[in-house]
Automatic annotation (TrEMBL), chain A:
GO cellular component: extracellular space
CDD domains the record matches: prolactin_like (cd10288)
Family: Belongs to the somatotropin/prolactin family.
Name of one Pfam family that matches: Hormone_1
RNA-binding listed as a keyword: no
Signal sequence region: 1-30
Record field: transmembrane: none
Keyword line: Disulfide bond, Hormone, Secreted, Signal
Protein's UniProt name: PRL protein
Organism placement in taxonomy: Eukaryota, Metazoa, Chordata, Craniata, Vertebrata
Gene: Prl_0
Biological process per Gene Ontology, one example term: response to nutrient levels
Compartments reported by the entry: Secreted
InterPro entries for the chain: 4_helix_cytokine-like_core, Somatotropin/Prolactin, Somatotropin_CS
Molecular function terms, GO-annotated: hormone activity
Automatic annotation (TrEMBL), chain B:
Region (Disordered): 573-596, 768-826
Ranges annotated as biased composition (Polar residues): 768-804
GO biological process: positive regulation of cell population proliferation
Fibronectin type-III domain: residues covered: 30-128, 129-228, 231-332, 333-434
Domain statement: The box 1 motif is required for JAK interaction and/or activation. The WSXWS motif appears to be necessary for proper protein folding and thereby efficient intracellular transport and cell-surface receptor binding.
Organism: Erythrocercus mccallii
Protein name: Prolactin receptor
Cell compartment(s), UniProt: Membrane
Chief location category: membrane
Residue ranges of the TM segments: 440-462
Length: 229, 826
């Protein structure tokens, strides 16, 4: 028995060695303790911003495509754009409206604003992802995008909280948040009104996601590249 | 009756006319009825065209008849419708009758009639044009219209004015060519609407009865329509654009102004604000545009923009235009585009494109992010290749065709939204021709040339194949003994020579003899050609005896030095070469058998000097397959006969030199090897013949001399024609001193037979080359080939020799040892 055990152990050892060699050859080495681009085993701010910008870019890309698809499918000739004026639920958040404002505002405030907008979209995105499936003959692409945006928005929020936690000297304000009460409008019986509610929501999503993307790019250039991107 | 009368009158008149024609005057030409026309269906008129008057005043008379009766009437009224016309008033007009009308012209000489015209009144109705056309314009409710009035055409008889006409009116602006025709109906006035303000119009009318044709157009009337005063049409906003995501501009298209100056006002309201603002800057972006500077530009805000056009009369507002500036960014094209050709390590050129973002765009702050796209094509190409390069401001292109000129353009666009900029100006770059292409060409040329050469070579090879073979694989050259120190030979130091040859033991063993044989080079002499027996070709044998001995007594040299044997006793014994016999014996093989046949064949004892240890003879046999090369050496003094046999046996028996009473046969078992081949038989036979002849002379004259003396050498000193042949025989001591055999060059040797003269006179040539003459014996060499021949020769001639090979090397002088054949002559 003992000899058997030893031989088994030896076999295992050999197998381990071989697998290790193979893995090493394949380039699959054990992960370094600290991820790439990190300082003191923490992701650098630059890396954080890089990821955040990529994410926000992606989210806006999705929301923009979703809006365009919806617009083409359901909003043609209905004049939704005229009605959509001044009806985003995040409109109460005063965000920079041009480059000058965006450059003037303190980066902490801007970060807080971004956080606020992201948070404000948590609820509506969840509802959008579920309600959009009830649109008549909604194409799969729209459904998929709604879900994807909802997930990615959460991730971006996490990342932004991390960035804000890193950048902020004081406390993170958690109170910036705009409630959304548009769920009933998404469930209206009248198709036209319901479609407009969707249209408006998607339009606002496109706008806010672009805002966030733009602000993040400005912040990145300001904080990481000293305004010299 | 009347017609007959008329015709007879006409004939008379024509006759008269012909007579008058001679005097320059004639009867009138034929008149032609132009048209008949009824203005109102109740009267009608006909007009004719007069023919030539014939130089005289004419009278015209119109006759007509009706289809219902035969009666001919004259025109009732020549005046009413003017000259050359006839007016038929109401009383003479019957719409149900067809009139046949003829016009006759008459003068003093005669008359002429027109062709008759059939007239149906109802088919020739055409009224006159309406008259008294008058125009008026009127404006009511910003609309201009034209009022036209006219009167029906007047008629000669006022009582007929109850006719009803249809009217048409046509009008056009003065400067245009196309008329606009309006059907009016039966009223004599018309109102024209939709006229252009400020344009002068021309108007005409015409009329028609219920049957017949339209009248002519009435005379033109024109009238100026006054300019309108209308409010402007709706302006239209064409587009809005932000070049750098900081400001933006909107343009609109002006509407028709209606002839009045129009003011445009751009009004906008922003999302979330009720207030309506006016455009802050109409001038910066040019006419019909509004520029929104940074202060007035907000993003993520919808602008509701309208344009209002206003003039004296009123105003008009465009449709609203909703703009979110975020989505209307269209940058300027990139600038500072550079194209640079670089070369990689492999020397392949690649193109590096660099560019800068448009100067207006602030990409550094991150507010605006631009993405680029470039396109390129060969100059003559049609399709662009478009490459999206993302946010980078440089690009490397590797796969460009060398030697082509490319056009490159770049444009840019903000990320996510907005529009692509215009393409940048065309940039040209010429990709140089690749070096490797040239190299390829060179290699191709080289390849083609080399293959050509190869082809030619192989062709030549085929054509002259065997020659080439001969060239490449030449025939095996004849054997030559090399490495013999001539001086040693000259001095006769056989031991040294032998030692030099690697044979240390003395007396030479069979090995040494082999060596000796090996190093003997036998050469044929050209003098052999003299011999009659040379005819026989023995090509294969080439026996060269190479001796550097300058001594005349070549044989003497050889024999004492190499074989210090003297055969004396054999003098009396005629030694005969009986090659055949020997051969026969030899074939039996075996050592023992060698002796007996040798003995038997020779029938005599071959005796050698007792002192000399060795026999005098070698017998070299050759391979059966190859020709037998036999080297025989004779010590002629004893008339010792050495028979050389060429046998087919591999082992070459050596004819033994005999000691006095003992006959020693030394068969040398010669393993066949190359050197044996080289050493062809020493040809005695050739020289033998010469010798024989000499001998004969000697024999005849001084046979006793020959017989009585033991001769080592025969040296012919002089042979004169007039004298008796003298042979100086150089006697060699029997002691076997080898050195004596070398005779210094004081006396000449006559070793070559030059000519055989009459009376048994032999002319010998002095040996100039101081070489030993190898003598080969042909027949021995060619055993298999010419036994019979040699036999025959033996029978006929004195010698057993076969004819010498004519090809033998003549460089060597012949060596004659006449004494060797002496016995055969005995």
């Amino acid at each position: 028995m003992s000899t058997k055990g030893t031989s088994l152990k030896g076999l295992l050892l050999v197998a381990l060695l071989v697998s290790h060699m193979l893995l090493t050859k394949e380039g699959v080495t054990s992960l370094p303790i600290c991820p790439k681009g990190s300082v003191n085993c923490q992701l650098s701010l630059e890396e954080l911003f890089d990821r955040a910008v990529k994410l926000s870019h992606y989210i806006h890309f999705l929301s923009s495509e979703m809006f365009d698809e919806f617009d083409e499918l359901y909003a043609q000739g209905r004049g939704f754009i005229a009605k959509a004026v001044n009806s985003c639920h995040t409109a109460s958040l005063t965000t920079p409206e041009d480059k000058e404002q965006a450059q003037k505002i303190h980066h902490e405030d801007l970060l807080n604003l971004i956080l606020g907008v992201l948070r404000s979209w948590n609820d509506p995105l969840i509802h959008l992802a579920s309600e959009v499936q009830r649109i008549k003959e909604a194409p799969e692409t729209i459904l998929w995008k709604a879900v994807e945006i909802e997930e990615q928005n959460k991730r971006l929020l996490e990342g932004m909280e991390k960035i804000v936690g890193r950048v902020h000297s004081g406390e993170v304000e958690n109170d910036i948040y705009t409630p959304w009460d548009g769920l009933p409008s998404l469930q209206l019986a009248d198709e036209d009104s319901r479609l407009f509610a969707f249209y408006n929501l998607l339009h606002c999503l496109r706008r806010d996601s672009h805002k966030i993307d733009n602000y993040l790019k400005v912040l990145k250039c300001r904080l990481i590249h000293d305004n010299n991107c | 009756m009347k017609q007959r009368f008329i015709s007879s009158v006409q004939i008379i008149l024509q006759l008269a006319l012909t007579t008058v024609g001679l005097t320059g005057q004639s009867y009138p030409g034929k008149p032609q009825i132009i048209r008949c026309r009824s203005l109102e269906k109740e009267t009608f008129s006909c007009w004719w065209k007069p023919g030539s008057d014939g130089g005289l005043p004419n009278n015209y008379t119109l006759f007509y008849s009706k289809d219902s009766e035969e009666k001919i009437y004259e025109c009732p009224d020549y005046l009413t419708s003017g000259p050359n016309s006839c007016y038929f008033n109401k009383n003479h007009t019957n719409p149900w009758t067809t009139y046949i009308i003829t016009v006759m012209a008459t003068n003093e000489i005669g008359s002429n009639s027109s062709d008759p015209q059939h007239v149906d009144v109802t088919s020739i109705v055409q009224p006159d044009a309406p008259v008294n056309l008058s125009l008026e314009t009127n404006t009511s409710a910003n609309m201009s219209y034209l009022w036209a009035k006219w009167s029906p055409p007047p008629l000669a008889d006022a009582s007929f004015n109850s006719h009803i006409y249809h009217y048409e009116l046509r009008l056009k602006p003065e400067e245009k060519k196309e008329w606009e025709t309006v059907s009016v109906g039966m009223q004599t006035h018309y109102e024209v609407t939709s006229l252009q303000a400020g344009v002068k119009y021309i108007v005409q009318v015409r009329c028609m009865l219920d049957l017949g044709e339209w009248s002519e157009w009435s005379s033109e009337r024109s009238i100026q329509i006054p300019k309108e005063q209308l409010p402007p049409e709706k302006p239209r906003i064409i587009k809005c654009r932000s070049p750098e995501k900081e400001t933006f501009t909107c343009w609109w298209k002006p509407a028709l102004d209606g002839g009045l100056s129009t003011n445009y006002t751009l009004l906008y309201s922003k999302e979330g604000e009720e207030k309506v603002y006016e455009c802050p800057d109409y001038k910066t972006a040019g006419p019909n545009s509004c520029y929104f500077d940074k202060k007035h530009t907000s993003f993520w805000t919808i602008y509701n923009i309208t344009v209002r056009a206003t003039n004296e009369i009123g105003s008009n507002v465009s449709d609203p235009h909703y703009v979110d500036v975020t989505y209307i960014v269209q940058p300027d094209p990139p600038v500072n585009i550079t194209l640079e050709l670089k070369k990689s390590i492999k020397r392949k050129p690649y193109l590096v494109l660099t560019w800068s973002p448009p100067p207006l765009a602030d990409v550094r702050s991150g507010w605006l992010t631009l993405e680029y796209e470039l396109r390129l094509k060969p100059e003559e190409g049609e399709e662009w290749e478009t490459i999206f390069v993302g946010q980078q401001t440089q690009y490397k292109m590797f796969s460009l065709n060398p030697g082509k000129r490319y056009i490159v353009q770049i444009h840019c666009k903000p990320d996510h939204h907005g529009l692509w900029s215009e393409w940048s100006p065309e940039m040209y770059i010429e990709i140089p021709t690749d070096f490797r292409v040239k190299d390829m060409v060179v290699w191709i040329i080289v390849g083609v040339l080399s293959s050509l050469i190869c082809l030619i070579m192989s062709w030549i090879m085929i054509m002259k194949g065997y020659r080439m073979m001969a060239f490449i694989l030449p025939p095996v050259p004849g054997p030559k003994i090399k490495g013999i120190d001539t001086h040693l030979l000259e001095t006769g130091k056989s031991e040294e020579l032998l030692s030099a040859l690697g044979c240390h033991g003395f007396p030479p063993t069979s090995d040494c003899e082999e060596l000796l044989i090996e190093y003997l080079e036998v050469e044929d002499s050209e003098d052999q050609q003299l011999m009659p027996s040379h005819d026989t070709p023995s090509k294969n044998t080439k026996i060269i005896l190479k001796e550097t001995d300058s001594d005349s007594g070549r044989g003497s040299c050889d024999s004492p030095s190499l074989i210090p044997v003297k055969c004396r006793e054999s003098r009396g014994l005629p030694s005969t070469l009986q090659t055949q016999d020997v051969r026969a014996k030899e074939k039996k093989g075996g050592k023992g058998s060698w002796e007996t046949p040798c003995m038997a064949s020779e029938q005599k004892t071959l005796s050698c000097n007792s002192e000399s240890i060795k026999s005098c003879t070698w017998l070299a046999a050759q391979l059966p397959s190859k020709q037998a090369a036999v080297f025989a050496y004779h010590s002629t003094v004893e008339a010792f006969k050495i028979t050389l046999n060429t046998t087919n046996v591999n082992t070459s028996p050596v004819l033994v030199g005999n000691e006095e009473n003992r006959q020693l046969l030394y068969p040398i078992a010669e393993t066949v090897y190359d050197d044996v081949e080289k050493i062809s038989e020493m040809e005695y036979s050739r020289t033998d013949q010469a010798t024989v002849q000499v001998r004969q002379n000697q024999h005849n004259d001084k046979s006793s001399f020959l017989n009585t003396k033991l001769m080592d050498y025969v040296e012919v000193h002089k042979v004169r024609q007039d004298e008796e042949p003298t042979l100086l025989l150089k006697h060699k001591e029997n002691s076997g001193k080898t050195k004596k055999c070398t005779v210094p060059g004081t006396s000449k040797e006559y070793t070559k037979v030059s000519t055989v003269m009459d009376h048994h006179i032999l002319v010998l040539l002095p040996d100039q080359r101081t070489q030993n003459t190898p003598v080969s014996q042909e027949p021995a060499a060619e055993t298999s080939q010419n036994p019979q021949q040699s036999q025959a020769e033996k029978n006929t001639s004195y010698s057993t020799t076969a004819p010498s090979d004519s090809r033998r090397d003549t460089s060597g002088s012949d060596y004659m040892d006449p004494s060797s054949f002496m016995p055969s002559f005995k």
